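Researcher: For the annotation table, I need structure tokens for Nicotianamine synthase. Please keep the output clean. Sequence:
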Amino acid sequence: MNNNIYEIQINLQKIAQTNLSNKSQVKTNALYLESLILQSPLERLKQIKEFINNSDLLHRLQVLYEEFETNLEIDFAKQVIQSNKTVKDYLLTKRFITLIKNEIRLGNMAKNHKVLFIGSGPFPISAILFNKLVGCHVDCYEKRKYRAELSNKALKKLDLSNSIKVYCKKGEDLSDDRYDIIVIALLAKPKNKILNKIFSVARPGTKIICRTADDVHKVFYEETEEKLLNKYKVYQKVFAKEDQTISSTLLIK
């Protein structure tokens, strides 16, 4: 990243105007945004953060990155179904392994735990890695029918249908208390309704891991307000660092 701050500002303005129907352009510009945020030195990051905060770019950059991740998951799920692709071939697997290991430690997750993942998307990479690394059974909620169906087809191809199940359901429609650990995806919304329902339904002692975006990583994802999390007791938090984009907050019912 040798560009001066003026060139970076121009580039950010350009990618904020990305045509979201152009999947190739979305991927190229989202990866540029990643490299800019994850590889820039601290002083440059401060300049970038100040520029974005004083502009109208933040929401558009978040929409771009969400579109990138969604496209990536849909395309990879289809590749898994139609070919011999495995989880290790997924572009973000290495990054997610670090995230999942952090969350396994955060929740002291074990093989006998019943885990629910809310907002699993078109390709349930997090649920797959929880299962691979711990051996636990994972249920997933995905509110869009097409994405839930695509996920289940990919899981069947990966021979994981007996270990991971995806239900077309909203997080705020949780209706049972059988889970030991509930993980809320960063893109799962609305967070306030999901958290309220979990804390009204879950049994005492249930661990809730809520993914959040902090500091400059809010360029990628919409912020989860601290005052929302502070309505509940925050026990511990693991902040994103180095090549990570997602932080994880532990709450306990």
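Researcher: And a one-line annotation?
Model: The two ends are 44 Å apart (CA to CA).
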